[in-house]
Automatic annotation (TrEMBL), chain A:
Protein name: Spore germination protein KA
A Pfam family hit: GerA
One GO cellular component term: membrane
Biased composition (Polar residues): 529-541
One GO process term, biological-process aspect: spore germination
Segments of this protein annotated with the region Disordered: 525-553
Organism phylogeny: Bacteria, Bacillati, Bacillota, Bacilli, Bacillales
UniProt keyword annotations, A-Z: Membrane, Transmembrane, Transmembrane helix
Entries under InterPro entries matching the protein: Spore_Ger (IPR004995), UPF0353/GerABKA_families (IPR050768)
TrEMBL record, chain B:
Gene Ontology CC annotation, any one: membrane
Xref: Gene3D superfamilies: Nutrient germinant receptor protein C, domain 3
Keyword Lipoprotein: yes
Family label: Belongs to the GerABKC lipoprotein family.
Domain Spore germination protein N-terminal: 23-198
GO biological process, one term: spore germination
Record InterPro entries: GerAC_N, Spore_GerAC-like, Spore_GerAC-like_C, Spore_GerAC_C_sf
Superkingdom per UniProt: Bacteria
NCBIfam families named among the record's database cross-references: spore_ger_x_C
Major place of residence: membrane
Lipoprotein keyword on record: yes
Name recorded for this polypeptide: Spore germination protein KC
Amino acid sequence: MRSKRVIRRIGDWPPHHRRMRLDRLNEPVLADTMAVAPSDPPPSPPADRLTPDLDANIASLRNKLQHASDVVFRPLVALSDKRGWIVYVDGLSDMELIDAHVLESLIQAQPQVTDPSRPLAVTLSEAAAEHVTTAGIKPVHTLSDAVESIIVELQVVLFLEGSGTALALNAGGGENRAISEPDAEAVVRGPREGFNESLRTSLTLLRRRIRTPDLAIETMQLGTYTQTKVALCYIHGIADTEIVDEVRTRLKRIDTDSIIDTGYIEEFIEDNPFSPFPQIQNTERPDVVASMLVEGRVAILADGSPFALIAPINFWGALQAAEDYYERFPIVNLIRWLRYLFMFIALYLPSLYVAITTFHQEMLPTKLLLSIAAAREVTPLPAIAECLLMEITFEALREAGIRLPKAVGSAISIVGALVIGQAAVEAGIVSAPMVIVVAITGIASFVIPRYSFAIAIRILRFGMILLGGTIGLFGIIAFTIVIIIHLSSLRSIGVPYLMPVSPLTNKNMRDVISRPPHWAMRWRPIETSKPNRQRQSNTMAPAQRMPRGKRRI
Amino acid sequence: MWRQFATCLSIAASSLLCTGCWDSTEIDRLSIVTMTGVDLAEDGQSVLGSVQIARASELGTTGGGSPSTSTGSAKAYLVESAEGPTEIEVISKIRASLPRKLFMGHRRVIVIGEEYARRGVGQLMDEVVRNPQSRLRTYVVVAFHEQAQKMLQVPSDLNRLPSDAIVEMEQSGSVLAVDARRFAKQLTSHSDPYTMGIRIFTNEMSEASPEALTLENIAVFRRDKLVDWLQGPAAKGFLWVSKDLREDSETVILPDDTGKVSVRLGSVRTSHHVVVIHGQPELYINLHTIFDINQNASRLNLLRPSNMSMVRQALQAKIQSEITAAMQQLQRDQSDPLGVGNELFKYYPALWRRLEPRWRDMYANMPVHYNIDVNVRNAGLMSSL
């Protein structure tokens, strides 16, 4: 099945104008403060409705939850004379919160003295709501809503005698991993927070960085069994509505039993599932997500996964690390060019070595050829076999290193260094230059900041080696052309993957070939921020803030 | 999608039926030729060819230890020779006698035996230029009064391969660096080729090997045949004119027994052009040089302009005598390595067509004018002593 693509040309885009929409966030009064539930529940059959008969309600609820032994039913007497029950999932609610703000306040509450100046609480549940001191309260009218509140939203549901409305109270708690620095995306300079598995916490981290009502967070539940909460985040007025709509449509189309990680979502919504190149970025860093959002991109977070998805992305972003924007720009420029160089090394070096030593020996300087010839004198395998052997061994070592417990990890590095590096050369199985080539290639592939992109390069490297070893430089060039054709046809949520190089948009080229200073990055990427292109005024440029002839203090 | 995959897969799979990787040659199946030599065989007709092959197993570190041969050892290379009617024939004979493929892509020096050079190098250059493996940047030298085969066997004291030593000498800037491209270009134009001579000299001082190679004397050709050697001052004089000199030092003896001054070449600009006067070509040679004083071993205070001009005049006289010697010998040999004929052909084509039949005689009697400008810098601090 081919997903619908948003095909746009630059010429079609309307003139940019800034839109501030402060009135966007019209959230309900009694709603979850973080996650906004947008719509009313559909009308339910009468049999599903809660009745004023408390015992009947509890009985049918017990019946519905008979398989879930971790649901706690606790009876209580509230508002001095009303019988009631609270129902919640054990271990996922904050017990102290329930004790202090639900049980205590309800049990000790006295019936309200009627104040003539103030209208009466219309229903019993509203009266109860006034006593409960938790922040989030939502009325529940049907049995299935109650079940959903308990099981999916992990709320505490309060049933009272004589009321057809139950109250879902937010007492979210339970155990969560602490916020820690993401191991895979460490920085020397920059924030050290990472998302964790709780969507609430992750969204908090995001909201802390973008404090504007324009930050839109749309939640939906995906997965018929897991009912995973998925949040679609973007900034109103910057993000291109066409892209947001497209992402939303693709998310809504997901119909599966489980979403365990955002990786599931990525595969369901990406443009070209068969491409080795990732078309959606994943990151654990809230700062990366925040900076992407203000560029007009869209982020997808899901409960249970610390990885946020970012779309649309382009090819060049794969070579830009978060730190690039925290460190001073001259340093970053050098490092960025180093990354470009090493991306080519990661892709080409082994195949070039094989191709040149087996087909184009005249291309090497004489002395280099002689050293390589001297090293290859004793090795039994042809260069291509030697290269594949070493590359595959290296990949296996890398894979083993990831899965191993830390205590055993050092053993792998010893085995790798000694057996593969030294012993293989000394035994004359593998030539020393090949070990050097494989080692440099290995280092080069770790220089690429985006891990999933580095894997794509690795996959292609093997194709390069095979072609370079069978038809020489001709094969390498042919494969390069194939890759470039593929890349230029690739899209991320409908946006060309090679943007801004192809199609060429001069304004955004700067951030590709270099890292301009922040004061010079005046425009947001054109492909994502159609409605609002200007990032900042141009008064921060040195010529503006340091006028000539005046003393600079 | 799957259909496309299946198509691609079946095409890829069918390529497995094709045998072999067509042109691929592992490095360890090559014998890398570093230098070749051509001689006239004893019968005076056929070619005696020699190749110097680097022994890869003796070079570099194979076992992770130190280099297995010491520098200058004769073991690092191997010389193979064969006779045959043509150069190609010789190469295929040598190839047949070796277990590995001869790889000419890294031949750095071609040594031509003197006898062979006197007979003509046209057919050799034809092969060199045609051979796709051969590099045009291969240096061409002529063995001075010797067989090329002998030259290939002389080890170098400092380099493991003698070819490296020759290449480094060629690139030193004090000799003519003539490669196959330049040689062939001159051969095909209206001038005559020239190149350096190579000579074995006996070095009594050296401990490792008594014999060593040196680039000396200039081989002068008339068309493709060697006619004469420029030696000593004449060779130096030709170097001045040929625009190849980049590094040099001179010592002049000053008149009136005042002592000697050594100078180092700072920069040199050479030009020569033909002027036609009354239908007769005349050659003008212009030379602008700047020297730095290297050592003042005289009693003169060089800060004095008069003393400096004495040095200048002495240098000018020396250079002029060298260039004159070179030009006189070249005119006597009727050999035109400076490309005077080519210049005439380019700028006076009509005159050239008229003169061509008797050009060699005209060249021998052509007047040559010299304009030599010498500047000397760095009188130095010690000069006032």
